[in-house]
Amino acid sequence: xxxxxxxxxxxxxxxxxxxxxxxxxxxxxxxxxxxxxxxxxxxxxxxxxxxxxxxxxxxxxxxxxxxxxxxxxxxxxxxxxxxxxxxxxxxxxxxxxxxxxxxxxxxxxxxxxxxxxxxxxxxxxxxxxxxxxxxxxxxxxxxxxxxxxxxxxxxxxxxxxxxxxxxxxxxxxxxxxxxxxxxxxxxxxxxxxxxxxxxxxxxxxxxxxxxxxxxxxxxxxxxxxxxxxxxxxxxxxxxxxxxxxxxxxxxxxxxxxxxxxxxxxxxxxxxxxxxxxxxxxxxxxxxxxxxxxxxxxxxxxxxxxxxxxxxxxxxxxxxxxxxx
Length: 324
Prior knowledge:
- The protein is α/β, with parallel strands linked by helices.
- It is built from 13 helices and ten strands.
- The protein has a single domain, classed as 4-Layer Sandwich (Purple Acid Phosphatase, chain A, domain 2).
């Protein structure tokens, strides 16, 4: 009998290098309305994260607690993206490199890296600062070695990592520079073609573990016949982005929520995702929270899984909490 293979997954590390450490309070600085600034401060202090640049030690705790792995997956969002333009910002690129270097040292060739939305940039939570940048795509590929798509076989399992912001470009596209949008659209066409190719080449006995940082992309994959006709072969889809089981639970409850277009880009983006969240179901979604979780629950951690290469039994998943 072949031995099981161990998989380790972490997500939403949001490391802050020196340049980003110097930008504390970055979200409030781009909000002109004082009442909105107060609401943002309360949201940060009591619910999300009071000090988003103050949790670098959680990566150290992960490295101390995580076991050796046959495959390790970092599922996106390596910096704090304090300029809201992703890796096109020098400080965010520095943060991402400082995050990835110890992971590469620890796991070497076993490490796979998935893009998060903060690698490419997106509008600030309140207001319209930043957005997707092609320079972030170039820097991620050339400077950090992030693959546009990765695929790895573990026996009868195919592990596949996709770029959620590119797949979900109809949602994120309005935040791109208008002159860059045609190239983003061409990248999306190419990316979807590669995803279709992977699914079309699946053998009947193979199972898929899909890694997709932002579940906003899943309804768009649902529209792809090559994916939809092989839903039965998708055993699990590991997402990040939501940070905490609280938001994951809320997203299930609010699935089908109407799309809102008149309350700013953050609300448009979030309501667009919730509006189509019922289409997450065939992907058998499993959340890998951020290492910190949220301020309210402090429920962060990482996942491990034991994979039977012969696929005689389902993958056995385990959550490992990282206390603050």
